[in-house]
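Reading a protein record of the kind used here takes only a little practice. Each token is a code from a learned vocabulary of local backbone shapes. With that in mind, consider the following protein and its fold in token form:
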Amino acid sequence: MSSAAVASGLTWEEFLDLPDEPRYKHAELVDGELVLVNPPSWLHQHVVGGLYAFIWNWIRAGSGRGSVTLEPPVRITGARGYLPDAAWFREERGRP
């Protein structure tokens, strides 16, 4: 996948407020820069689906195993965050 920075000086809040448009679906915020990433390939999505299903089944097999989601904005700092393909959160963290 290739990527390109298209804006700089953004905060996490501004990143979350981006319009709900296809071009921002795979965006990342890296040190205040808005980086657009090309959509993933079919194989990539197939692997993500399998990983999600595996984690989902593991969570359902016992208590206190957290939650998994496919569309989580994940904040690293006030100027860095990602929209990963899938994310698992510990039970203590609560729902994403």
Notes: The CA atoms of residues 24 and 36 lie 7 Å apart.
